[in-house]
Amino acid sequence: MKLIMEKKYLLIVVVTLVLFPLGSPTLFSNFYIDLLTKIMIFGIALLGYDIIAGYTGLVSLGHAMFFGLGGYCAAYSMKFLSTNLFPMLLVAFLCALLVGLLVGYFSIQTKGIFFVFLTLAFAQFFYLAAFNLTTITGGDNGITLSKVTFGIPKVWEVMVSRPNGFYYLTLGFLVLGYLWCHRVISSPFGKILVAIRENEDRVSFLGFNVRLVKIKAFIISAFLGVTAGVLFATYQDFVSPGMLHWTLSGDFILMSVLGGMGTLVGPVLGGAIILYVGDFLSSLTENWMIFIGSFFVLTILFAPQGVLGLILKRRGKKEEN
Amino acid sequence: MAISFSTILTSMLHGLILGMVLVIVAGGLTIIFGMLDVLNFAHGSLYMLGGYLGYTLATATGNFWLALVVAPVIVGFIGFLIEFLTLRPLYGRPPLHHLLLTFGLSLIIGNLIKFIWGNDIYSVSPPSYLTGATRFLGISYPTYHLFVLFFSVGVAILLWLLITKTRYGVAVRAGTEDIEILEANGIDSRKLFTAVFVVGTALAGVAGAAIAPMRTVYPQMGIDIIIDAFIVVVIGGLGSIRGAVIGALLLGQAVQFGAVFLTGFSDAAIYIVMVAILLLKPSGLVAEAE
Amino acid sequence: MVLLEAHHLKKSFGNLAVLSDINLEVQKGELKSIIGPNGAGKTTLFNVITGRIPMDSGQILFRGQDVSGAKPHVRSRLGMARSFQINNFFPNLSTLENVQLAVQSRLKHGTSSWRHFSKGDGVEEKALEVLEWTGLGEHGHELAMNLSYGDQRKLEIGLALGTDPSLLLLDEPTSGMSRFESRSMIDLIEKLSKRVTIILIEHDIELVMRVSQTILVIHYGQRIAEGTPEEIERNEEVQRVYLGGL
After folding, report:
1. CA–CA distance, A257 with C187 (Å, rounded to integer)
2. Which pairing describes strands A143-144 and A238-239: parallel, antiparallel, or unpaired?
3. SS3 assignment, position B136
4. Residue B13: inside a domain, yes or no?
5. Is B229 a member of any domain?
6. Which stretches in chain C have pLDDT values below 70?
7. A&C contacts, CB < 8 Å
């Protein structure tokens, strides 16, 4: 089942997103721009997660590791380099490469449950490091960031405004991220990923170095994860160990499965649903997670392909008729 | 810091109790995984449920022992509902779905508990004759803690007897190897699955109820214990009960001594051990018996 | 020219010696069949040759190169391909997509995450060619899991063929097939034997006698006999152990 969204729907969504802020504060408050920004930041992380979990079938419980890593890279870069976004991203990408290689090399040797545990263990290791090494990381108090800037120093550099500046910055990265992921997924490499998910054993007998392919996919997901982390930390002006905690990895899984894994759009949609509904519900009751959890359980039971899977199935049926 | 015999003994006892409680929790997790191939993420929240139920029952009836017996029964019943309504329909599916399902359930149960009991921390008082401290071997150790130790050992022995001496236990052990053996011997595997899940979750519940007076009952209980339990199960060897026991006891000691002698990073050491085991000997410390 | 050499292959699982000092030599263009009772070690031999499981001792030379410790994908790249006794394809992909993966592995940008294939690369063409060759030309767009069993066995071979191998190892291609289905498989193998060197594991003696240049008989991980079909047919020990009077 081809689950890549048709271009025209995506174009409509992007155009809507671009025009959206024009409606505020007259039509609706800035609150929605803030929410959308957060949704888009998570969306970037979720795109990365879909590559490794949805397409390659390697469900990890350690994606928060990259998210948090990006955040801390942003904080240190701001402290020691500058407030400019680009050096931050460079540092983050470098870290993503190193950590992705290191963790990936070891984790990729395992499968299934073991992979879940191993990625969890590595991620928790980073969490504990951030939590306990208070002199370097500020421990549970985290690190405060100053306002991030965008542009080329001495030529044109501005402080990223809120909320619109960040909104468009994030939108830009989300679009770029999606375009890159789409390119990867429809490339020869992407086909190998799906093959690994379907029948890893046979893939090596066709002549592909499965280990290398998996590590590469892991690193790609790392790049997207740290990007999201950088954006989140600079948006909140704050980074804390919470960005590394395994429950955040759990949130990523929740969002991905709900939206529909292996579709790129699905997980982003899942993130949007959970963040929006969660925000709405949390104003009603403190225990809104019960609904999200129930929704999730129902999805697993009756619609394991996720929301997007349901939509596409219904469209497929309509086409048949 | 003076490292005297009493310090060591106290630390060891701490670690032993931690370990024994983990034995109960991880033991339940292990038989569920061994039999059903399901990694019950909800195990931590069921442990928590046992604790909160124990608190409510003990405070309402004034009878601690009643609470200790009834709480696991209720938790076991919830386990039955879970297995029957949500796990059974999923038995054909890839194991990932089970993991995700129990993960979702852990969220539901955890938040349901917060909904019913609120965000507060509750302390539970054990019967008066178990309060205070006992003197032996030159140290003064909280009496209730010792009770937890003996109680856990008792439960563990009970479980061991169940597994090794009864027909059902043999079936469970056979089942962890090969489901078809059971069917061939005329045992309804579906009923056995349910029974194992109920027993496993009840074990989590009783651990939570028993430890309540020691550690208080608080909303993070479930999350805190589940990772430790997972680590134990992995280190011991997925599905190996003996391994889970050894793993739990080791972990108990490691956490305790780590907390006392290493500062800060003791938690991380556990993860390092788990990583090492997963990479070098994924079958766990104790290779699965014949 | 000797394409594959195996010397003193030994493999034990625990106390059970599955391969005891097996030696093998395959000439280019040859079709060598390996026969023997169940559990004789035939599939294990394939597994060791293709690198699926490590051997305890011995040496394997493929096209003159020592591949004794090489990983499966390395051996595949050198030109070794294999089909499996139990279907081992990609059930949720179409037949065409299955073979395209195999074809892709031989192309320069076969693992690229940036550069896509262009029409000029001819991935689809080559894959279709393989499908035609194996008699699956009509079923390109069907999901592999929806194919008939006989067609699935052909896809098994097609998948291996797609990698353009110089040595093809076929593990019981007619396993589970009816006599009718086996017929077209036999024709396919005969056709293949003119194009590529083949090592064939089979239980269908009629097929083996018909297509093989040489036959190797294995029992309890050891060579019982080796020779032309006529020699094997007359071999008394083979008859006793396996053929049961032909």
Report:
1. 47
2. antiparallel
3. strand
4. no
5. no
6. 243-246
7. 87
Mean pLDDT by groups of 10 residues along chain B of 290 residues: 72 83 89 84 94 91 88 94 88 82 92 89 82 78 86 86 75 64 70 88 93 86 85 76 77 70 64 77 54
- The torsion angle over the Cα atoms of residues B189, B195, B197 and B202, rounded to 10 degrees, is -170
In this structure, of A135-144, A232-241, C166-175, the range with the lowest mean pLDDT score is: A135-144
Q: Is residue B235 included in any domain, yes or no? A: no
Q: What is the signed CA dihedral for C32, C37, C39, C45, rounded to 10 degrees?
A: -10
What integer best gives the mean pLDDT of chain C? 89
Assigned domain for B258 exists? no
- Whole-angstrom Cα distance, residue B16 to residue B22? 10
Report residue A255 as tokens: 């969002």
Instruction: Name the residue among A112, A289, A296 with its Cβ closest to that of B95.
Output: A112
What is the rounded end-to-end Cα distance, in angstroms, of chain A? 17
Reported ipTM exceeds the 0.95 cut: no
Mean of pLDDT values over A63-83: 93
Residues B285, B243: Cα–Cα separation, whole Å: 7
> Which residues does residue B192 pair with via DSSP β-bridges, in sequence order?
none
The ranges assigned to domains in chain C are 1-79+165-181+196-246, 89-164
Query: Where are the alpha helices (H) located in chain B, listed in sequence order?
Result: 5-36, 43-61, 64-82, 95-117, 143-165, 167-177, 179-184, 189-215, 221-236, 241-261, 266-280
Q: For A305-315, write each residue's pLDDT tens digit.
A: 888 888 888 87
Cβ distance A194 to C110 less than 8 Å, yes or no, reads: no
With an 8 Å Cβ cutoff, are C76 and A186 in contact?
no
Give mean pLDDT, residues A281-297: 85
Quick one: pLDDT at residue A183?
Answer: 94
Supply the pLDDT for residue B207: 93
Chain B residue numbers touching A128 (CB-CB < 8 A): 265, 267-268, 271
Q: How far is residue B4 from each of residues B8, B10, B250, B259, measured CA to CA in Å?
A: 6, 10, 22, 17
CA distance C35 to A172: 63
Instruction: Establish if A188 touches chain C: CB-CB under 8 angstroms.
Output: yes
The number of domains in chain B is: 1
Pull the structure tokens for residue C75.
Answer: 């051996």
Domain with B100, as residue range(s), is 20-221
Average pLDDT for residues A226-251, to the nearest whole number? 94
Q: Examine chains C and A and say if they touch (3+ CB pairs below 8 A).
A: yes
Q: Determine whether the interchain pair B110/A254 forms a contact, defined as Cβ–Cβ distance below 8 Å.
A: no
CA-nearest of B38, B41, B32 to B91 is B38
**Using CA atoms, how far apart are residues C148 and B24, in angstroms rounded to an integer?**
51
In the CATH hierarchy, which fold is given to the domain comprising C1-79+165-181+196-246? Rossmann fold (3.40.50)
B105 contact residues in A (CB cutoff 8 A):
293, 297
Closest partner CB to C73 (pick from A183, A188, A207):
A207
Mean pLDDT of A222-237: 96
Q: Give the chain A residue nearest C160 (alpha carbons).
A: A206
Question: What confidence tens digit (pLDDT) does each residue in A149-172 have?
Answer: 888 888 888 888 888 889 999 999
Q: Which residues contact B85 (CB under 8 A, 6 or more apart)?
A: none
Nearest to B104 among A114, A128, A296 (CB): A296
